[in-house]
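Section 5: illustrative case.
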């Protein structure tokens, strides 16, 4: 299977996400379509579209972008609890059918403003147990008729989805670094997504997940692995590091307003924050300083350098087994084109099928 190269499209009400330009028309259909079409024209397979209460509905955005593009694949993030499994399975099957099989799904189990849409906060074990049921029910509804499933968290009775999705349904991407999350990935996911950890941490996690898939008697095709990270690329190595350090300096000036001291980071996020103790630069060009100054998620660590530098770094991840790359940098409109043109030809040579 060929590697997959995806970008990121911000899905927020207010502009300025991670330093993005506050452009006129932000959040409009035309603006979002422009980002998707730019990704399509500059070599990206598609893009991740984030989710969260108080943001535009991800599935609605994904549907609009699929309708206005030709090859673009929306990787739509969704949350169990916001969706019931049968409702989700039907919506996903419909969009997958209408888009010619282009839909990808990112299952998110992290915290959200659950009470705002009638959900309840459980402990970690509860959250991942219901995620497992959610994914299992959706797959059965995509491939079977008259499905009856009585679980601890969800149930369906004599349920059949129409229309049917292409094949066995959209591929399910999944993230999470806790033991509970890894057990869900090992049994239910198609692709486990990692944040930008150093090579040794990724290698350890891939090895552990491969062992888990055997121990837990996985009944799906082999689990694949992906990397979600920021890539700051310039014409030269020196210019890239100059710009990266300037960005972090600007972040540091505002970091006290960006960090919520009462919010406990998820396991995967804490792993990234802990990397700063090992140094500002790990491996060849993994920059950890952003995490100390408000960078979160994919913005916690950056791969910094020329296109050759970053392509070589990503090739090393590919050598470990990474075959899905979800990259980004801001301002999004500019960097979608810049990174696509500079990096993707090198990656396609460096990361063979």
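Designed sequence:
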């Amino acid at each position: 299977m060929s590697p997959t190269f995806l970008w990121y499209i911000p899905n927020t009400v207010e502009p300025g996400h991670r330093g993005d330009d506050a452009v006129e028309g932000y959040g409009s259909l035309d603006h979002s379509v422009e980002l998707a079409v730019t990704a399509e024209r500059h070599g990206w397979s598609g893009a991740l579209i984030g989710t969260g209460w108080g943001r535009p509905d991800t599935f609605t955005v994904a549907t609009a972008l699929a309708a206005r593009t030709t090859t673009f694949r929306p990787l739509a993030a969704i949350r169990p609890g916001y969706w019931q499994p049968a409702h989700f399975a039907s919506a996903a099957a419909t969009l997958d059918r209408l888009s010619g099989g282009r839909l990808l799904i990112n299952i998110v189990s992290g915290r959200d403003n659950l009470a705002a849409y009638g959900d309840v906060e459980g402990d970690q074990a509860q959250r991942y147990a219901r995620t497992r049921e959610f994914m299992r029910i959706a797959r059965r509804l995509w491939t079977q008729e008259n499905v009856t499933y009585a679980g601890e968290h969800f149930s369906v009775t004599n349920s059949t989805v129409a229309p049917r999705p292409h094949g066995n349904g959209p591929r399910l991407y999944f993230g999470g670094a806790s033991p509970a999350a890894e057990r869900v990935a090992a049994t239910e996911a198609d692709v486990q997504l990692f944040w930008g950890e150093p090579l040794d941490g990724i290698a350890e996690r891939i090895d552990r997940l491969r062992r888990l898939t055997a121990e837990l008697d996985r009944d799906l095709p082999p689990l694949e692995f992906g990397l979600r990270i920021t890539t700051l690329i310039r014409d030269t190595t020196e210019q890239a590091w100059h710009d990266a350090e300037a960005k972090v300096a600007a972040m540091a000036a505002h970091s006290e307003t960006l960090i919520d001291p009462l919010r406990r980071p998820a396991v995967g996020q804490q792993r990234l924050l802990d990397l700063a103790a090992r140094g500002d630069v790990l491996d060849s060009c993994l920059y950890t300083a952003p995490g100390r100054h408000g960078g979160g998620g994919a913005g916690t660590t950056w791969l910094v350098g020329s296109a050759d530098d970053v392509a070589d770094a990503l090739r090393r991840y590919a050598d470990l087994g990474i075959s899905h790359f979800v990259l980004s940098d801001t301002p999004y409109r500019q960097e979608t084109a810049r990174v696509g043109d500079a990096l993707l030809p090198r990656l396609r040579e460096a990361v063979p099928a």
